[in-house]
Amino acid sequence: MISSKISNYDPSFYDAIMAMAEQHGAINLAGHYPSLPVPDDIDQMIRRHWLDESHITGEPFGNLSLREKIAEGTALRTGHQYAPQTEITICGSREQAMYATISAIVREGDQVIVFEPTAGNYGAVVELNAGQPTTIRLSEPDFAIDWENVHKAISTKTRMIIIASPHNPTGRVLGELDIIRLQKLISGTKIVVLCDESMAHTVFDGQPHQSLSMFPKLADQSVVVRSFGEVYQAQGWQMGYCMAPSDIMKEIRRVFAMMGGSTHPVLQNALLHYMETPAYNPGTSNLFHHKNTLFTKHLEGSRFKRLPCSGTWFQMLDYSAIADIPDREFAVQLIKDHGVAASPLSLYLHEKSKSRMLRFNLAQSDDYLIEAAKRLMRI
Q1: Among 20, 24, 83, 225, which has the highest number of CB atoms less than 10 A from its own CB?
Q2: Using an 8 Å Cβ cutoff, are 132 and 110 in contact?
Q3: What phi and psi values does residue 29 have, to the nearest 5 degrees?
């Protein structure tokens, strides 16, 4: 019998929810990924490149021209200039970039601050690298970061702080004051910030996304991860990239090299050429603002309470006015009795919680969301 190296990580309930949704023919809003079509123009671009280039071996750290395009776009958005040759790496997925960064930087006994709830399982990756995750719970119901708690948690052993903005599962987006507080906290330290910005394009609260790259001193101590898969709702190919100062990126690339291979060049070349066309549009904030507004409008007058959400394709709902039972129990009841599947908040926490909240995935067709809302209205 092999004992697990990872504590408090068990995906079995999520798998059970997904299977139960299929078994009962429920409307499934429990998943992580979009159920929307890839834009036709990029789909056609990939098909054309696939016919001509499927046998080509890619560059180890990504197509240089694509990295140059990323650097150009990042400079326009944030004002920060990353060197394509040494500070940008194309990766197979957001998860690969996060894992490689943690593996490159965290050593035995290092403390890593992680915020919960989180869909990233970052604490588990820290444990695999013999680090010590320190979990800080986001404040409810707005899921804000209590920076005083972060200040108290930092010690001489703190090596990394992991954040995500926009945040999955809550849809919380860090504001300028949050980033300034973070920058102040790590100033004069050797702490590295690992930031998942893979859903930056989904912010729909009317405010610009505050990337860590916009703050020069913070950017010098940060690894920023982004994803093409999230941008184009194409989780099947998940390709992303990470950006960091050259000394940090050098270590991350050592880990990538040990993983072997490179991200498929067909996707890279197709994306590069698509980014050079007039049709290129890296933002989907209007789409997900529409989805969120549509769903919540059709829930008006229900006993569910909508929690604050500024981005992502997720929406948290509080069901405490309906039942005072654990969220996993309510999620099962919701599927069996009402034909709607959602993810309980406790899936994203490593400790037991009395929260009465569910996460709903709104990256679905309009008709699907309207029907889901109708069923929820009857509860």
Answers
A1: 225
A2: yes
A3: -110, 25
